[in-house]
From TrEMBL, chain A:
PROSITE patterns referenced in this protein's UniProt entry, alphabetically: RAB, RAS
UniProt main location, coarse: membrane
Protein name: Ras-related protein Rab
Function, as annotated: The small GTPases Rab are key regulators in vesicle trafficking.
Biased composition (Basic and acidic residues): 200-213
Family: Belongs to the small GTPase superfamily. Rab family.
Topology of this chain in the membrane: Lipid-anchor
Cellular component, GO annotation: endomembrane system; melanosome; membrane; mitochondrion; trans-Golgi network
TrEMBL record, chain B:
Chief localization: cytoplasm
Stretch list, region Disordered: 136-180, 610-646
Listed Acidic residues bias regions: 628-646
Biased composition (Basic and acidic residues): 153-162
GO (cellular component) term, any one: Rab-protein geranylgeranyltransferase complex
Compositional bias segments (type: Polar residues): 614-623
Native organism taxonomy: Eukaryota, Metazoa, Chordata, Tunicata, Ascidiacea
GO BP terms: intracellular protein transport; small GTPase-mediated signal transduction; vesicle-mediated transport
Organism listed in the record: Ciona intestinalis
InterPro entries referenced in this protein's UniProt entry, alphabetically: FAD/NAD-bd_sf (IPR036188), GDP_dissociation_inhibitor (IPR018203), Rab_escort (IPR001738)
Keyword terms, alphabetized: Cytoplasm, GTPase activation
Protein name: Rab proteins geranylgeranyltransferase component A
């Protein structure tokens, strides 16, 4: 998942981040807001796109390519393939703060995530909980901050944020928090580079001298 | 997940085996509305790969216990159909895995012997403890220099040389060997118990304890249907052409090994020009003869005169006529063409050509191996289908379909929640059988998976994947074995893993297991703790864990089904994927005549947007400077992602 390239002082990372949650909680909106700085009430599930890419100039020396993997429009019944989970290094689990049922499903999504993917050292990938559509809140689910903190501790979320993709609340902050955690992990163990010998089918040896080596 | 599904689709596909997944991806790619269901909670059906835990669960019970209808499909009274409709039940194929068993030969620690093995502690420890064992993250160097035994996966497949002719569903007549196996296992159990006593004081056991072995359950990807990809086979071409390859990683099959008559050692088969020239087992004269043969096979269609007289004869007779030594004939027949003694000259030439044609495209090899196992391939196509709009739902399947009596066509399915879903075409994979259709068992394969602690044949260079062919010996069927190393992400670092398969043509002969174990010097009774110091170069590989099962392929006669119900075949015994890919393409073209089969999908990188960015308030996170590519995100009124509150 992560390609860390060192060119002189500059570090480049490629991070795969999953965006998970029930249907209609605004996963795609969050991604669009973050990646494209736009919010639209009217778009359909993205067709033919695996992930949205955001290039983040983290600091003078660090460039991060963030792949945000949405649940492909129609894997919405919660049955993503291993292809989706493999080599992810962080995740957002999104719920709709105005709909309690989407919060109840958070636990299921978190368990599923922890079952399907871990960091190379076996720990769970850092996951941030997003209570989205906060702009529509009246009273609402998130009033008890202490309770949310406890919930996150208990379930193993690194943090939670109240967000609104529509009103652009806390999206950047949440992303920044997650990237920070991912970078911490990067530093906490020496990352193995992807095996240089892993084959890419599109680059065959035809042009070379064939079978002599 | 019992939400209602949309209730009208162009195509409904039941089962996520490889051909089904490919068809699904191809249909979604050309904007067909596809619903894809699978009764299991995993993808891939008979093409799946499992970790140690899930494979044990699977082998204990390969079938869903909850069947909607009774065995005879009679209990259909609760399905409402009108008078001019008929309900046709779809049943689970319960013949596909039989005679399943597994054993772990490792000891448990003394102190943990009392409390029964519990799986949950394993998970915890796995997450905190097993970092160093992850084969996925190990750099090459440490493997080469490591003092610990290098881990490899061995996939071993035994099969009869007469694969195509093998019509016996190997269920009968095998009682003997099963009994023998049982005895053997019991003896082993006894032996194990004895050893436990002897051995308790030894400090550094050579083998891990069983609980440590199971702690790494997650790192295994064991194939139900091990196969390798011809580098120029249809699957590789399709993956490249469609861009589905972006979901997959591959390894080279770095060597081909075989036994020569009378030899106890595995020998490397010289396949390429370079191999032939450097081989120690081939004399100078033979080298020239072999090279000439390879040159001919590479263009055999242009040189008919060379084999004109052998059209009616077998390939082996043809090889003999080329003055190939027995050894060289053996290499060509079993390890390069991978055909049998009865194969015709033309078929043998075609098989050799196919091999040579694939050689050298990716490294010095004719084959590729999918990292994480064969089970990744159907998943890649399923993801592709989902990304292009296919609707996927696991643990959901068709209990039957509704047939219009007037048109004779299938109009809808009834799923296991009772929902009626309309479809233009219904596709069933090999694990879903329409009631009343003629089915025949086409072939039966014995397969085994071994986790072993060292490679079956040591070599100087690190081997990624080895393909081992064991020719038929003393009336035993031929064996094909695939050994995949730790770089292939199929096993943790300190174990080997192998699967084998066998077409049980002659069930009365030496039991399959014993045959293979003898050939490869594999022996689970060797499991006893030893205190280091042993010459790791010379010792035999030891089986730590094994499983055996018989897989039977079922062929459904489509002619008895409505014209818009299509059944797909199972994995069969082919080494490669060409048959499955051909089948998928034919099915696709039947549904979408003249349409493009899996045209290239855009890379995500081509769909980067930069419009609408602004950087004003953002010092640390700033937008991409990259140019945007094509705009594949459609904005429409339809709003699937943001429905009103329920």
């Amino acid at each position: 998942g992560i390609i860390a390239t060192m060119t002189e002082q500059r570090k480049e990372y490629l991070f795969k981040v999953l965006v998970i949650g029930e249907l209609g909680v605004g996963k795609t909106s969050v991604i669009k807001r973050y990646v494209h700085q736009i919010f639209s009430q009217h778009y359909r599930a993205t067709i033919g796109v695996d992930f949205a890419l955001k290039v983040v100039h983290w600091d003078g020396e660090t460039l991060i390519r963030l792949q945000l993997w949405d649940i492909a429009g129609q894997e919405r019944f919660g049955n993503m393939t291993r292809v989706y989970y493999r080599e992810a290094v962080g995740a957002f689990i999104v719920f709709d703060a105005t709909r309690a049922s989407t919060f109840e499903a958070v636990n299921k999504w978190k368990n599923d995530l922890d079952n399907k993917v871990t960091l190379p050292d076996g720990r769970n990938i850092p996951t941030v909980l997003l209570g989205n559509k906060i702009d529509q809140m009246r009273g609402g689910l998130l009033s008890n901050k202490q309770q949310m903190d406890n919930y996150c501790d208990e379930k193993g979320f690194v943090a939670w944020f109240e967000t609104s993709a529509k009103a652009n609340i806390n999206i950047d902050e949440a992303a920044k928090y997650l990237i920070d955690k991912i970078l911490d992990n990067e530093r906490s163990y020496s990352r193995n580079l992807p095996d240089p010998e892993a084959l890419e089918l599109n680059k065959d040896d035809d042009e070379k001298s064939g079978c002599c080596r | 997940m019992n939400e209602a599904l949309p209730d009208d689709f162009d195509v409904i596909i039941i089962g996520t085996g490889l051909p089904a997944a490919v068809v699904s991806g191809a249909l979604s790619r050309v904007d067909k509305k596809v619903l894809h269901l699978d009764r299991n909670d995993y993808y891939g059906g008979s093409w799946s790969s499992f970790n140690i835990k899930s494979v044990e669960t699977f082998l204990q019970n390969p079938y869903d216990s909850a069947e909607y209808l009774n065995k005879d499909g009679e209990e259909t009274s609760n399905i409402e159909v009108s008078e001019d409709e008929e309900f046709v039940p779809i049943l689970q194929n319960k013949n596909f895995i039989t005679k399943a068993e597994y054993s772990c030969y490792l000891k448990r620690s003394e102190k943990n012997e009392e409390p029964a093995q519990s799986s949950s502690p394993c998970v915890d420890t796995c997450q905190s403890d097993v970092v160093e064992q992850s084969c996925a993250s190990k750099p090459d160097d440490s493997l080469k220099s490591g003092e610990t035994p290098i881990s490899e996966e061995v996939q071993k497949r035994e099969e009869s040389p007469k694969v195509e002719n093998c019509n016996d569903p190997a269920t009968q007549g095998d009682g003997d060997s099963v009994e023998k196996e049982k005895e053997l296992t019991q003896e082993l159990d006894k032996a194990k118990t004895k050893e436990k006593v002897d051995v308790s004081e030894v400090v550094k056991p050579r083998f891990p304890l069983s609980e440590d072995f199971y702690k790494q359950w997650r790192h295994y990807n064991l194939d139900l249907s091990p196969k390798v990809m011809f580098s120029r086979g249809l699957l590789v071409e399709l993956l490249i052409q469609s861009n589905v390859s972006r979901y997959l990683e591959f390894r080279n099959v770095t060597r081909t090994l075989t036994f020569l008559d009378g030899s106890k050692e595995l020998q490397r088969v010289p396949c390429s020009r370079a191999d032939v020239f450097s081989s120690k087992f081939v004399s100078v004269v033979e080298k020239r003869i072999l090279m000439r043969l390879f040159t001919l096979c590479a263009n055999y269609k242009d040189h008919e005169q060379e084999y004109q007289n052998f059209r009616e004869k077998t390939f082996i007779e043809f090889l003999a006529s080329r003055r190939l030594s027995l050894k060289a004939q053996h290499f060509v027949l079993y390890s390069i063409a991978m055909v049998s003694e009865t194969t015709s000259t033309l078929d043998g030439l075609a098989a050799t050509h196919k091999f040579l044609h694939s050689l050298g495209r990716y490294g010095n090899s004719a084959f590729l191996w999918p990292s994480y196992g064969v089970g990744e391939i159907p998943q890649a196509f399923c993801r592709f289908s989902a990304v292009f709009g296919g609707t996927f739902c696991l643990r959901r399947y068709a209990v039957g379909f509704i047939k219009d009596k007037t048109t004779g066509r299938c109009t809808a399915i009834v799923d296991n929640t009772g929902q009626k879903i309309r479809c233009g075409t219904l596709i069933l994979d090999d694990l879903n059988l329409p009631h009343g259709a003629n089915t025949t068992s086409t072939s039966s394969v014995d397969r085994a998976i071994y986790v072993i602690d060292s490679t079956v044949s040591k070599s100087d260079a690190e081997q990624e994947v080895s393909l081992v062919t064991i020719p038929p010996m003393c009336d035993n069927p031929a064996v094909r074995l695939i050994e995949a190393g730790p770089l292939c992400c199929v096993c943790p670092k300190n174990n080997y893993y192998c699967t084998k398969k066998n077409c049980e043509k002659q069930p009365k002969k030496l039991p399959f297991k014993k045959n293979v174990k003898n050939c490869l010097n594999l022996d689970e009774t060797n499991i006893k703790p030893e205190v280091g110091g042993e010459d790791s170069q010379s010792r035999k590989p030891v089986i730590l864990w094994s499983c055996h099962f018989t897989m039977t392929d079922t062929n459904t006669d489509n002619s008895t089904l409505p014209p818009n119900v299509i059944t797909l075949q199972g994995p069969r015994m082919d080494l490669g994927f060409d048959r499955a890919m051909n089948e998928a393409r034919e099915v696709f073209l039947r549904i979408c005549p003249g349409e493009d089969f899996l045209p290239r999908a855009p890379d995500p990188e081509e769909i980067v947007f930069d419009e609408g960015y602004n950087t004003e308030n953002n010092d640390t996170i700033s937008p991409t400077p990259e140019d945007g590519g094509g705009d594949y995100v459609e904005e429409e009124e339809e709003d699937l992602n943001e429905p009103a509150a329920e």
